[in-house]
Task: structure prediction
Amino acid sequence: MDRQEELFAFLKEEGVSSDLLAQVRQFRAAYPSGEEWEYRIANPASFYYGKDVWEKALAVLLAGENLLLSGPKATGKNVLAENLSALFGRPSWDISFHINMDASFLIGTDTFDGQKVIFRPGPVSLAAENGGFAVLDEINMAKNEALAVLHATLDFRRVIDMPGYKKIAVHPATRFIGTMNYGYAGTRDLNEALCSRFAVLSMPLIREEDLTKLISRRFSDIRPEFALQFARLFYDLQKKAEHGDISERALDLRGLLDAIALVHTGLQTGQALEMCVTNKTFDAYERRLVSDVIAARLPQDLRSAEVFQL
Amino acid sequence: MSAENNLQNRRALNMVWNAAGRYGFSPPFLAFYPDGDADFYWNTVIGLTEKYVDGEALATLFSSYAGTRRAEEFDGLVWLALENYVFEREQPERPILRAMREEAARRFFQERETLSRQQMMAVSPRLYEQREARFAYVLGKKLPFLSPAGKKLEEDLRLPGSLQADKVPDRLKLILAEDLHFQNFKLGENRAGRPVSPFLSQILKGVLRTESRQVDSLIIRTGAKEAGNAPGAEGFRQHHLTSRQEGDEAFIREVFGPCMYGDGQMRRLEAELCRGNHEECRLWITREKDFSGALGREAARRALSDAEKQQGKNRQFYEASGQRAEAVIRSLAAQFQTLLSSYARPLPEKARTGKLNARLAYRMAVCQDPMVFLRPGEETEYDLTVDLLLDASASRAENQEMIAAQAFMLSESLVRCHIPVQVTAFRSLRGFTVLQVLKSYEEEKSDRIFRYYAGGWNRDGLAIRAARQQMKPRAESSLRLLFVLTDANPDDSVKLPPEEGSFFLREYGGPGGIEDTEEAVAELKEEKIRVAAIYLGPTTHLKNVERIYGEEYVRISRIEQLADGARRLLERVLINR
Result:
């Protein structure tokens, strides 16, 4: 079974509305993926857990709207975005936004091919022409002025007008998925004009049982009691970060999963968590607080054989 | 409290909160090892107790025997009982608790080696033997010899986790009544009143390891009532009300340290600035780093000692906010970074892609040179300096710690963005307008800002002109900002010269002072210095702010918003650049 079918099976198991899933199948049948962009279709390593969020996201995309995933760190925004493009079987273009982003970066720019000046299309134009899913990652890192070029693309007009070049009509299968994190260092408020062109899905923190499942699925041989303790460690850190006693740096789901992988490979729990979680904060006092939280959950000296059923 | 103690206190709190699974409450107990480090296991127990047992019912129990001489012993025994209870309840959820408990037990027996028996038993032999029995039980060791009553107590103290949480306080009370024959529960008595000798408390800290301590809230308000005693709040003013006397300069020198300019230089500066409205005034500018005054006059000695006390308070106040202050600095620095990179105009550079540069287009055909496009290049380095001028007159006495903390955070966050920042406090005293440079552009640390204290008058017009002298000389295209923390109510005891055709001196407070300040700001603006105000004061003075600073001001309603206000102001200034 390929990964996309696995994803369908997973969603069915999670209880996602079969009606929505049927519509996704219809969408796929209506817009089969061409071979040219086959390599751009995502092959997600992990699946997003959360039935409600799935249903909302599917409904938005099926209705032809653009989706903005907004939420704090470690809520799985990018995992969901990747999962969605895989489920719909569309090629995806990931565009990481930054402060110096400008229109030419998104739409394309002139270049010289040795003979003449030609237009080199940017990721947004490519996605628009080829029915791709454009993932606009950390969309609020860019200046609002730079994003104005997307207004006509994102609203009912669905066109990209490139002065001096051509006007592209956006392919009907194209969708734009933005992700953003409020209050992150360097972020800003999205302006109203842009925000109104998205349906905003506020991403909740993953639930404990889902996180435990995620860990167990990723590491199929982990002992259940440890999957639970690792999951709870994440919530302990989350509460501490929420209260402002530590920064969000140590609140890193990726880091936690990496740590478990390191234990699997052969490191002790203490060493693995130190590298992947504790040391993500650079303040000595903060590190001590994070270590305390870890010490109240997991012994430092566990090895692979104790954590996993090898 | 030292900085390290403060950190350990906060760390202990974090342990408690982590175990309780919720944050922000003040537990009635915190536990420390004899060396002052937070006790991991016992703080976890305290937190778990908060999680499982009704805190209010327990507090009532703790206070019901608080007035008695056996209170310390009872505290210890009650905690032993709670320890077993929460252990049994939490252990299935948190398997590591067993290892933590065993570690605590091993530590107990290790410590026994280093303390004399008298020390260990100083609180109560009964408590000691019960602790010993508990930890022997935990480690599976042979229990110490106990009398039948001791044996029964030991068993009773192993409060089973199966007990319903709401029954716990009653059960504890029953143990105290039955096993310890204590009947005299006086409900609600204030435990804070219980006398504990310093010696006993030392022993308690070492042996019992649970220390009753009221935990400070995030913001320690130490000075609401004391503010009046802050350096000069009244003291300075009274001194100053007397007419200028000989020796004022010596007083200023003793309190603020030597002037940073030589006599000749200072005379020239005064000749330039202290004219017109300020003819009768003197200037004193100091940036002494480790000035510890030459204690001559009694008044100076008192003022200095008050200033030092205030410095301690400022620092303590800041440190009490713990990680949160650090988070604010980080976030402010990131915001400044974002602001600056938004408004920095990148210079175009040649590239292979981008906008075609028509003037170079021939090179494609002739030289096969593809570098004929322009794209936004690396950013220009923002050439920006920020000066923060803090009103340090007596009207700020209520908020000294907060002003110091906010100015510190603001300064640190600017330093992290590599923006040169200078922080200066100003006040007028005995005819001198004193500018204290608390952080110069070159200094990397902002610690001296904690030397801020309030006292005296504020002659804004002169202070702003003098601050201008301290600013970096203007480079082409540079942006120089002067942010003034002000209440827009200039007031000084040195009066203004009479208006033409009049014999009467005018007050500096009121219209005269405002007009003078307005002129000062206008002078700076002519030199292309952007002067903006962070206004903290009553609405009645709002029109003064508008008159003096035009549109370039932000109003903050609480001093806690100072740093944020500065950010908003910077944004506004950059947009209108």
